[in-house]
Amino acid sequence: MAYFRKVKNGWRAEVERAGVRRTATRPTKAEAQAWAVAEEAAILAGTRGEYPSRTLAEAVARYRVEVTDKKPAGVSRADNLRFDAWLRDYPDLAGKTFHKITGEDLAAWRDARLKLVSGSSVLREAQQFRPIWTLAVRQWKWAGQSPWKDIKLPTKGHARRRVGGWEEIRLILRSAGTSPRVAPRTPQQEAAWAMLIALATSLRSGEILRMSTTTVDLKRKVYELRHHKTEAVVGARRVPLPGRAVRLLRVLEAQAVNEKRESYFTISDASRDTLYRKLRDRTMVKGLRFHDLRATALTMLSKRVDVMTLAKISGHKNINELFNTYYRETEEAIAARL
């Protein structure tokens, strides 16, 4: 925005755009206005080499509002947790002026993270953080270029191979006091029931917890999934439900109707995560993440349906990802069937 005022030797123009403030005096008001227009354009284009003194933390805050918070709930929660950890664990980087962040700064972050997590985790985090610079350079005009091009990121690691064994699953269910014939009565039992549904349907945690009497049609055996990870690409999904899943969901539907609520579950995704971890650790089951249950379910379903049907169930558009990441049958198990 530009301001003009009459001074002794002409007209003084004041320009403030994108946090940059410039002033100049010209003999006439018309010249002052012309200068202001040109200066505003130059500031926004970054040709003056001047950028607003905003920090990385401020850039993350703006990116959250404009991008992250518009994603599906489960995805935005995961992204926000990574942002929180990034700003908390690397305060010097978070407080640095955004356009002064260099490739050396990001390389230092990369090396520090590699001491704590795998290369795949660092790559995943970088892929989330890097688009902030894309917006900042192209739209916000907070920087002239992205420093990410100056560093080398780790290569993607091998896919996980962990699947849930039935002995492990039974241990966790017994620990929660859960039976597939009896509706859950405690938050911990709800977390265990989410496990059962995951194994029967291959759905993600957030997708399971959004199941309700209005989105699940047990007669047609279809779950209308209105919000999911790939919603922006494919829109709403209609997920076919296996017979075992329908039997389990009948128990939850009867409970929901009896308690006069739509949702099958009352716990949040964050609560489910905490409760599941407690159950798993209490039974000393090592390394079984909740998301591994999705791979376990898809591996079991792959023995009963063809790959195109499996992709329809899982919602994968990339068959290679389905095969390389979620199909986890061991070579020994395959050999035993040959």
UniProtKB/TrEMBL annotation:
GO MF terms, alphabetically ordered: DNA binding
All residue ranges annotated as the Tyr recombinase domain in the record: 159-338
Keywords recorded for this protein, A-Z: DNA integration, DNA recombination
InterPro entries: DNA_brk_join_enz, Integrase-like_cat_sf, Integrase_catalytic, Tyrosine_recombinase_XerCD
UniProt key word Coiled coil: no
Biological processes per GO annotation: DNA integration; DNA recombination
UniProt-listed PANTHER family: INTEGRASE_RECOMBINASE HI_1414-RELATED, PHAGE INTEGRASE-RELATED
Protein name: Tyrosine-type recombinase/integrase
Organism for this UniProt entry: Comamonas antarctica
